[in-house]
Amino acid sequence: MNSLKVIFDFDTWQEIFGSIAKNKTRTIITVVGVLWGIFIYITLSGAAKGLDNGFEREFEDMAMNSMFVWPQRTSVPYAGFKVGRSPRFTINNVEELKKQIPEIQYIAPRNARGVFGGSEPASVVYKEISRSYNIYGDFPEYTKISTKKIYKGGRFINEQDQKNQRKVCVIGERTQEELFAKEENPLGKYIRINNVFFQVIGVHKYLEGGGFETDGDIFIPFNTFRNLYNTGERVDWFTIAAFDDADVVAVEKNVKAVLKKIHMVAPEDDRALGSFNIGEVYNRISGFANGMTFLSLVVGLATIFAGVIGIGNILLISVKERTKELGVRRALGATPGEVRIQILLESVFLTLVAGIIGIILGAAVLAIINLTTQDLSNFPYTNPTVPIPLVIGALMVMVVLGTLIGLIPAQRAVSIKPIDALREE
Amino acid sequence: MGDSSLHVLKGIELQIDEGELVAIMGSSGSGKSTLLNILGMLDTADEGEYRLDKVLIKDLTETIAAKYRNLFLGFVFQSFNLINYKNALENVALPLYYQGLARKIRQQKALEYLDKVGLKEWATHLPSELSGGQKQRVAIARAMASQPKVLLADEPTGALDSKTSNEVMGLIQQINREGKTILVVTHELDIAHMCKRIITLKDGIIVEDQKVDQILVDTHVQ
Predict the structure, then answer these.
(1) Higher pLDDT residue, A255 or A283?
(2) What is the pLDDT of residues A58-91, one digit of tens each?
(3) Contact with chain A for residue B146, Cβ under 8 A
(4) Is the ipTM of this structure higher than 0.90?
(5) Is B162 part of any domain?
(6) Is residue B118 situated within a structural domain?
(7) CATH no. for residue B58?
(8) Residue of A nearest to B78 (CA)
(9) What total of structural domains would you count in chain B?
(10) Do residues B97 and B107 touch, judged by C-beta distance below 8 A?
């Protein structure tokens, strides 16, 4: 008997539909078991994926393999220096770091006023309005590490601004709201920062989760900042992005080692330099999300398994109920193979139908969750999806399980001797 | 089920020729159903030989037994054994399905046989919508549809009243007249006398085997 031919035979399916439709209650109860399993699987793993996406969104404005490093105070005496000294980063460190650590893709030295304790924010004046804002001196490379969304028409600081020490600035969206009238376009306007006129070249959109930056920050070229505040070679901190394939944790270690050497800090002094590694934090959080995905996979598969066992169970009862019918079929010339494949296909068909309905319901629930959480920007939950390969994988698992579990009632059906079935009670 | 063995038949020697209409009689426990089951390849004998149309039926695998049943034998049961979720036409077409015939041909043949038993108009009715006599006629049509060599009827009238019993026996006689070999197991003497030969079993052996004058029933079936 050619079993492939049987599967694609219209008559086979008519036989199967006939016996499935015969007992609707049984069919529905059976289907619900598996449906529930796949539904839980899809909903859970979709939710886990949504959480994962949500975390990713929180970090989307930072390069995943980026880090900061800043000077603190030494805690170990070294090379004749006492403890409590604060190493001073300089602009020349950039070349040295790049030379010694090839994994570094970008370095953006930064200076700031108003961010850390001790420094005054800049006083900014436009027309009659005067306010104070944090101010940053930045290299154009900074956008490669921390994405800045600039509103339409504007731009971030570029090489020319830097080279010519242009007095240009990128302001925050809150700065724009507070200084400018609603219909006024700030681009091209001049604002006074510490009594020096700066032309506004862009407005950046504030993105949450970007560390200590706020929606009022003003960015100016690094070299302009240097002149404005007379900072000379000094750099407050470095923002560094490693290449995508580099291990940012190792890079962080190397960067600190190189900086310690340059600035005469004891190699074992852990307190002299502070650092923050986005990659590490991200890895920890995405590890959590991965754990959720794994959990949902295990729970989902276990539930599907339970559902499929339910199908096997009910088919077993149904085979017992249909002893007579199966006996008649055998007497009329059904071979054991034909009986077996009929019961097997019933099992697989029920499993598949249940699975597909469950997937559709799960997808619907995910869509509803997505709609209701769309406006919650502080809730890390975005676009809950289940990858198609996982869905297909789940379906395949169900077909395999449905076949395996169907083998038990199928074998029972085959073991029915026509004579036992037809013997009068 | 089946773990206690019992010797029911104790040596049967029997030849049935083509075109015969044989009644197998005996009280319950005489072994008549067992004999029919062996003839129907539903059961196997511990010893001895069974030849059907010169073919030795022995040590068949279930698959080959199924094929032989399908091609050589037609069954009629006391309780009709129609499949209750299939209509009359589908029931009659079922053995043809297992013969692997195309759908159209099955339907056409099934309708032809339903017509033969006078139930063409009832083709789309479920067994639950048919009377006992009609159900048995559908069962006979189903047994005939695969054009078997032998028709085996196990108490075909056991669940019917005498009027419908006569109708069913009339149908069986008619089929026999067309040349079909038929075995009827019964414990009713009047039914047995509608056959051409009566074999009486008792305690697993043949006690009587005689040709009789057939009582014809009115074959007009409505």
Answers:
(1) A255
(2) 777 667 788 889 999 999 898 888 888 989 999 9
(3) yes
(4) no
(5) yes
(6) no
(7) 3.40.50.300
(8) A424
(9) 1
(10) no
